[in-house]
């Protein structure tokens, strides 16, 4: 069941110009849910769910929170649910700041300074636009938009239509010069490409084609073999065990430099996360160029190392590891039917070897970090 926190119901758009927005180019996932809802999921670990039937969406995602208010509030879930065809105008930032335990839903004002991975949300009945990581996703439940709204969604990365007529929707997508028109299986448009699975990546770095790409996105997810699913789950379990260790460490402990010249705990966290992200993004990019290769690896030798986020707590570094785990799981459908013991595309790793190595990698580096707790000078907090 969804937990209600106060009043809203949908629609999203580009945020006021006074609020800065991310241009990271990180991939954003557009996911079709059972019952026809849409989930927009970012690398930052937050998501926005849009549905006409909010009760069905709440059953599909038990941790989702149905937002009912435009007020400033903390939300103890990474998922917010917005009801399509709602009546309240929105102009909001959905964000979790580094080191914050919970995300916040805030009206966009000049005083709001979003993080790099914030969702920027604005809109009204029958129209809206979500912006995150430089990706702009327009949502419409009417194919007839006035000039002001049409101008707002021009060159959006995806136009998602709910309950509109096929030809009118295609006409709107062409008028808006949308990169992609995303429809459900119930909408028949000549020349549409049926997507494999229910998850489609979007990126601000994707090129604009001469014609609108029409994509039919269904509700059925790609099912992986039991063998690769087991390998993924073992890797995830090892990462979760590592997260538990790091989540207890303070900023001072994460930055502890042992007298023996070995790495700080923070380097180990960045290294484990960075290796997994790089290796899997290389494979995913080879399968779908919309997903960029992402290299966040720190310098290898201690004298050369500069912390990416020296002010992050261990809990935030643990969340970063979890975000990468979620990223790999999100796009793991690209591993389907890939030979487990042959080198993956654009990788020196075979999938089985990579998953087993990442399992060991988390365990080995976490064990090394735990040894530092007994070294001279280890901060008590």
UniProtKB/TrEMBL annotation:
Highest taxon listed in the record's lineage: Bacteria
Instruction: Please provide the record's keywords in A-Z order.
Output: Signal
Span of domain DinB-like: 240-343
Coiled-coil residue spans = none
User: What is the organism field in this record?
Assistant: Stieleria marina
Signal sequence, renumbered to the chain: 1-22
Known Gene3D superfamilies for this protein?
Answer: dinb family like domain (1.20.120.450)
Protein name as it appears in the record: DinB-like domain-containing protein
* Database matches in SUPFAM superfamilies: DinB/YfiT-like putative metalloenzymes (SSF109854)
Q: Does the keyword rRNA-binding apply?
A: no
Quote the InterPro entries the UniProt record gives.
DinB-like, DinB/YfiT-like
